[in-house]
Amino acid sequence: MCGIVGYTGVREAYPILIKGLHRLEYRGYDSAGVALMGEQDDALKVYKAAGRVSDLEAAAAPNDCSGTAGIAHTRWATHGVPNGINAHPHVSQSGNLSLVHNGIIENYATLRDQLKSKGFTFKSETDTEVLVQLIEYVEQSRHLSLPEAVRIALSRVIGAYAIIVMDRRHPGVLVAARKSSPMVIGLGEGNCEFFIASDASPIVEYTRRMVYLNDEEMAVCKPGEELNVVTLGNDAVNPDVKHVELDLDMLEKGGYPHFMLKEIFEQPQCLRDAMRGRLLTHHKRVVLSAVSDHREQLVEARRFIFVSCGTSWHASLIGKQLIERFCRIPCQVEYASEFRYANPVILPGDVVVAISQSGETADTLAAIQLAKKAGAIIFGIVNSVGSSIARLSDTGTYIHVGPEIGVASTKAFTGQLVILTLLALAIGYERGSIDKGTYEKLIQELDVIPEKMEKVLSQNERIKEVADRYCGIRNALYLGRGINYPVALEGALKLKEISYIHAEGYPAAEMKHGPIALIDENMPVVFIATHQNEYEKAISNMQEVVARKGRILAIVTEGDTVIRQFADNVIEIPDTEECLVPVLSVIPLQLLAYHVAVGNGLNVDQPRNLAKSVTVE
Ligand code: M6R
């Protein structure tokens, strides 16, 4: 769960690497480093710093940062505290090799003991330093070239890695390899330069021609020569060069103070993008190519098993309700981290739906690898194009909401919900399990949902005023029924991850089985109580809170006059079809969490202890 960048070519490497690291800071931001080499076999120039990329820049500034090749890293610590010593790049004992790594070497302790017995010493506590020493050991003891030494060393490694290695004795050459961690290589004009990174964002302003390295592949980048790719078993690979379109403006904040706020406000447009070409309003049809291409497996599915984590898991809970309601196919929702170790029963006809914004979440990836081996068809609902989960899926649908930079997931969640609705409609239609009237009504409603979302967003100032009253709280309870229950979970997750306020989501009726003991005048309770979802019963649950002096913030349907009478604060959302309520009801909760965190002076885009892409288990 780190970001890596490499460059070799004709330009100065340092500015390219630093800019790239800034773009990858969402992957980790507790320390950073860079190693540079010139055109002669001089000593490597290595600079590191605890903290953010800006701290690295300050540390490197007084030094010589010249060189036309280099590697760089922004870290999310796994082995060893975040400090300058544990920061990457790590350098081999001789000072010849330097390496950056994203992933975890699981057998690093055994390898380190073996290397110590051969006379190697270690400066850091990291698994990565073990890897660079291992490569050096293999190179020296077997008199191998750098690529061969990397390949052989990796055959002794258990774990996940995306690595870039350079050797000061071979100016300009970068060796990159990956297993279970992402890596993409950008090709400069005439192969005069190569850009390597954890995703396309640091590369796209230089070239659109990219090669996504597959698992267990290694690439040698040498300016002036073709990109040379082999498998770690040493079979030649013909690299698949893709033309990648990525809007750079989307990577910037676009005038908003934070990426999270920008991404919240982008949602109406994101939903339009997600539905484009799929929701054919004039033809009253939903068309998903994945459903047409895998019609039999999806339409005849025996069961859907959703695997995912965090916010994507909340979307899965809603997906279950949609598929069961409109397709009458039984569904199961699993935390990917539990599923992968639970020896799950996977039967013929099962479809495993992997939902992931990043497409790189280690637990979700492992869950689908297991399901695939057991014979299930994998349907990916992913945002990051070309990501590991997308590539491992047999079929699926991209949500196409653009890069999500803020650590708190917002637009990916509503994008996932819309894709899940389209999926349920497409399969339900094919199965004949949804009646024509409902199908057509939902198509019309999906068409206008972005406008309704804009209406919710227009209340931002008012939501901020409400949030200001909640800045001092230490706990909060989020309650909802039916389709609003996962929204309660998502609202609570948003608040806790960016404001560090303890928050819990519950099905509203469960409150009386325990959490009600927490209610007093100091306990804020956020109710999602729209007209559609067992409205009267939700009101009874609210009365139970009022009777115990709890403070209620209610998300209600526009025009509600009942709840207003006893709730402390009310935020209205436009009326819509029940299955689409979460797309609207989650917006005030995203804004509430955002304004509470900003009000408390916190870094909403990069909250403590978190990273955007969780590529470790
Ligand atoms: O990239 P993914 O959707 O697979 O990520 C799953 C979770 O790590 C993610 O949703 C996390 O919970 C977010 N920080 C929530 O805002």
Question: How do the strands and helices of this protein lay out in sequence?
Answer:
Blueprint: E1 3-8, H1 13-24, E2 31-37, E3 45-50, H2 53-60, E4 69-75, E5 90-91, E6 97-105, H3 108-117, H4 127-142, H5 146-154, E7 159-167, E8 174-179, E9 184-187, E10 194-197, E11 209-212, E12 217-221, E13 228-231, E14 236-237, E15 241-243, H6 259-275, E16 279-280, E17 285-286, H7 289-293, H8 295-299, E18 303-308, H9 310-327, E19 331-335, H10 336-339, E20 350-356, H11 362-373, E21 377-382, H12 388-392, E22 395-398, H13 411-431, H14 436-457, H15 460-468, E23 475-480, H16 485-499, E24 502-507, E25 524-528, H17 535-546, E26 551-557, E27 569-573, H18 581-599
Helix pairs in contact: 3-4, 4-5, 6-13, 6-14, 9-13, 9-16, 14-18, 15-18, 16-18
Describe this entry's structure for a reader:
The structure is a single chain. This protein is of the alpha/beta class. It folds into three domains: 3-246, Aminohydrolase, N-terminal nucleophile (Ntn) domain (Glutamine Phosphoribosylpyrophosphate, subunit 1, domain 1, 4-Layer Sandwich), CATH 3.60.20.10; 253-457, Rossmann fold (3-Layer(aba) Sandwich), CATH 3.40.50.10490; 460-599, Rossmann fold, CATH 3.40.50.10490. It has 18 helices and 27 strands. The protein has an eight-stranded antiparallel sheet with strand order 3-2-4-1-10-9-11-15, covered by helices on one side. The chain has a seven-stranded antiparallel sheet with strand order 5-6-7-8-12-13-14, covered by helices on one side. Strands 19-18-20-21-22 form a five-stranded parallel sheet, sandwiched between helices. The N and C termini lie close together (10 Å). The model has no long low-confidence stretch (mean pLDDT 93). The site of 5-amino-5-deoxy-1-O-phosphono-D-mannitol (M6R) has 16 residues, from helix 9 and helix 16. 5-amino-5-deoxy-1-O-phosphono-D-mannitol binds at residues 309-312, 356-358, 361, 364, 407-409, 493, 497, 610, 614.
